[in-house]
Amino acid sequence: MKIALIGYGKMGHMIEQIALERGHEIVCKIDVDNQEDFDSPAFASADVAIEFTNPTAAYANYLKAFSHHVKVVSGSTGWMKDHKEDVERLVREGHQTLFWASNFSIGVAIFSAVNKYLAQIMNQFPQYDVAMEETHHVHKLDAPSGTAITLAEDIVSRLDRKTAWKKGTCVWDDGHVDGSADHKPEELLINSVRHDEVSGIHTVSYDSEADCITISHSAHSRKGFALGAVLAAEFTLTHEGLLTTTDLFKF
To answer: At CB < 8 A and 24+ separation, what contacts does 236-242 make?
Structure first.
């Protein structure tokens, strides 16, 4: 398979390594300093583009890839609020293909399935209040993480006593704290921690007067995310439309 990389930072380098190990070819690498390569024959020859950039660039990157009818696998978050309907229309009417996920880790996909099932069970036990915490490295500026938001939305859709998630506090290594833990009973609070070089920890806790039930996923490195992105690209090669990890992993 011919792969184009959009975003060539730490994730891009790791995706390249795993893709080559799995026998794929990297035909184009696009970063901030060579945006003109979107219009190159090399990019147009790609079967799939794997995009890991930032919320402000992601949507424009999709449009550039779609203009050459290159399928896209993307892990960029934050774009859906303003552009979800546009992307859905482009996929539907323009016959484009986008595989999007807030997290490509196989472990997180398993964790997500457990999270959904646990929320269904806990809907029967209103004495338990649910809260979330996510921890990432200090270079990650957005909070809560896209993965935490996805997990929270999965909980809210299954718990009658929760109507929405709410951003809580964000604690930094230097001691300062952003945000507030104030929230309404019907809101699911997501607190954040930005610590050292942590790849990602997501924890969901159901607490009652009697006891506490906690599930957690901790990433040891970015390798799991990179492998998942390449697996998604392999899946996207033979599928079309708006895809996500529930299409790839049948739990």
So the answer is: 236/48, 236/71, 236/73, 236/97, 236/99, 237/1, 237/47, 237/48, 237/71, 239/97, 240/71, 240/95, 240/97, 241/91, 241/92, 241/97, 242/87, 242/88, 242/91, 242/92, 242/97, 242/98, 242/100
